[in-house]
Every structure is written in C-alpha cells, then in structure tokens.
C-alpha cells in the first residue's frame, strides 16, 4: 500500500497489524483480539482523517499512484470496447484514449485522459498531458458519435495540456478552442466526469457537457496549486495555501454551479475499492445519460449552451 503524507497515522497502524499477524501465523500465541482491536483503530483513524480533508489533501488523493484511470473504468464498465486511434491529421496521441463501448447494451463513445500505471507507461502516455492531436482525436470521435447518435462520455484526469513548444507549433490553443465550440453544439448527450485531476484547458478541452460530475476526491481549476504558488510567491512552498485559495474541490465547484454532481468515493479514496468506484460511476453515468435523452435534441443543445452562459455571474457595483 502507498500512503500519502497525511495518512502516516494509518501507515503506522498497518505496520503494527502486519507484525501482529505474523506473530499469530506461527500459532504459538492467539493474537485475534489484538488483530480485531487494531482493525477497529484503523477504521476509526480512517474515518477521522477523511471526515475533514483540506483542498491540498484532496489534490494529493487525486494524484495517488494507485488511483484508477480511464482504461480501468472502461474495462470495468463496458462488456465490449473498441479503441480508435489517430486524429487523421498528424498522429495518435497516447495521453487521450477513446473508442466505442457497450454500456449495459447502450452503445456509447468514451473519451478520456490516460496517465499510465507505472513509470514506463507514464512516459508513454506523457503523464496524461495531451498534444493537439489528442484533442483532435477526441473531436473526431465526438463527431463520429454525433453521426450515429451515440452518447459521449468524457473522463477527465490531466495535470494540463502539454506545454511543449511542439504542441504550440501544432496549434494547441486552437485545438482546445475548436473542441469547446463543437462540444457546445454536439447533437448527442455529453456527460463528463472528473476522475482525478482537472487542470486548465487540458481538462475543459474534453469537458464541456450537458452533465458534469466530479468524484469526491478530485479537483478542477484553471491552474494547479504548485503553479499558482510559483506565480504568486515565486516558490512551491505555498501550494497548500494556494489550494485553499483556488477553491478547487468538488464541493467548491458544485457551489459555483460549474459541476452538477459529486460522486461519492469509497472511504479512503477510489484506489481503496476501485471495483466499487467503477460500479458507482457507471450507475451515475447511465442515470445522467437517461435524463438527457428525455429532452429533444434542440432543447438539449439550448440547455447546454445556457448552462455555460450562467457560469461566472458578474455583479456590477452601482
């Protein structure tokens, strides 16, 4: 198990539990009472830790190395899935995956960021930071969904769009802007879910939808706490303060009207019970799609545009 900085009390209890279990395995001394006591303390400690998480702690949870990514959810939710590649312009971006899947008999197009499950795969996936061809691939798949009337599911988990000079040369900003323009008018249901990090244009580039949900321990913001800290204080040392000031948690986003729903995670985070998390996410995605499909296409598009027009009201001083 991988423990985060604020989970150190849990780590110590787990270490004690393992030692006690080793002693009990010898069969010389009955350690069951001690095991039960430690397991009870672990449950209580976990409840205490996760009952009042700060913004920065939720950022840390969203980046947990064992947290499930897009392809895990696709595997768990879809009986069949065919991945499609390439943007038909430049190449295939590995940071964004997408394809056609079957969600309990309903055909959907699923698009999402993929970070990679180990160091080698993270390099291969560019740590979930997409180049322009990734956003153009996503748009190609969305237009394919529109052509055949398939709902679109977008799973967001990125530290941001790739900021390299080659990405700028190939039109990073235009690719993201084009996606926003097209997604606003897409004539099929679009449901988005932030499953990890939701940073900047890298997230919104596939994140404009009829219904936007966030998993409980995720964040959504124009900038990461570290980058915000480096700009304002010329140092990463104030990242915790920046995280609080940015108001980037799921609860904050729900309060601002930027997202429509918060999806509860298993206690300790999605990585503690990934199969349970996948079932919960699937249930909420199906529910959201069904609600959107009750509308006419014209009403759906009108409501989607109006939803984003309402975000960020400005009050003028008299």
From TrEMBL:
Its main location: cytoplasm. One of its GO terms (biological process) is fatty acid biosynthetic process. InterPro entries: Acetyl_CoA_COase_a_su, ClpP/crotonase-like_dom_sf, COA_CT_C. It is found in: Cytoplasm. Pathway: Lipid metabolism; malonyl-CoA biosynthesis; malonyl-CoA from acetyl-CoA: step 1/1. It catalyses: N(6)-carboxybiotinyl-L-lysyl-[protein] + acetyl-CoA = N(6)-biotinyl-L-lysyl-[protein] + malonyl-CoA. One of its GO terms (cellular component) is acetyl-CoA carboxylase complex. Residues 34-291 form the CoA carboxyltransferase C-terminal domain. The keyword Lipoprotein does not apply. PROSITE patterns: COA_CT_CTER (PS50989). Component of the acetyl coenzyme A carboxylase (ACC) complex. First, biotin carboxylase catalyzes the carboxylation of biotin on its carrier protein (BCCP) and then the CO(2) group is transferred by the carboxyltransferase to acetyl-CoA to form malonyl-CoA. Belongs to the AccA family. Acetyl-CoA carboxylase is a heterohexamer composed of biotin carboxyl carrier protein (AccB), biotin carboxylase (AccC) and two subunits each of ACCase subunit alpha (AccA) and ACCase subunit beta (AccD). This is Acetyl-coenzyme A carboxylase carboxyl transferase subunit alpha. It comes from Neolewinella xylanilytica.
């Amino acid at each position: 198990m991988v423990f985060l900085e604020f989970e150190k009390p849990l780590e110590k209890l787990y270490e004690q539990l393992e030692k006690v279990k080793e002693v009990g395995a010898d069969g010389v001394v009955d350690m069951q009472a001690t095991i039960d006591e430690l397991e009870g303390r672990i449950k209580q400690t976990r409840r205490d830790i996760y009952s009042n998480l700060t913004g920065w702690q939720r950022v840390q949870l969203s980046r947990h190395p064992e947290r499930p990514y897009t392809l895990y959810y696709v595997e768990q939710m879809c009986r069949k899935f065919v991945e499609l590649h390439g943007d038909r312009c430049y190449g295939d971006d590995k940071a964004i995956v997408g394809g056609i899947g079957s969600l309990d008999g309903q055909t959907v197009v699923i698009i999402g960021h993929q970070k990679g499950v180990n160091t080698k795969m993270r390099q291969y996936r560019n740590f979930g930071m997409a180049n322009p061809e990734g956003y153009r691939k996503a748009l190609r798949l969305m237009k394919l969904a529109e052509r055949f009337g398939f709902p679109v599911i977008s799973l967001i988990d990125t530290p941001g769009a790739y900021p390299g000079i080659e990405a700028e040369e190939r039109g990073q900003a235009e690719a993201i802007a084009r996606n926003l323009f097209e997604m606003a008018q897409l004539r099929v249901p679009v449901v988005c879910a932030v499953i990890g990090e939701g940073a900047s244009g890298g997230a919104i580039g596939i994140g404009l939808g009829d219904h936007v949900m966030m998993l409980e321990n995720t964040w959504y913001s124009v900038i990461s706490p570290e980058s915000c800290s480096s700009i304002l204080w010329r140092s990463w040392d104030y990242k915790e303060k920046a995280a609080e000031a940015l108001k980037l948690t799921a609860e904050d986003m729900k309060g601002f009207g930027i997202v429509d729903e918060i999806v509860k995670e298993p206690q300790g985070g999605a990585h503690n019970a990934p199969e349970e998390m996948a079932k919960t996410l699937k249930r909420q995605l199906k529910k959201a799609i069904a609600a959107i499909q009750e509308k006419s296409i014209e009403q759906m598009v009108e409501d989607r545009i109006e939803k984003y027009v309402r975000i960020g009201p400005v009050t003028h001083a008299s």
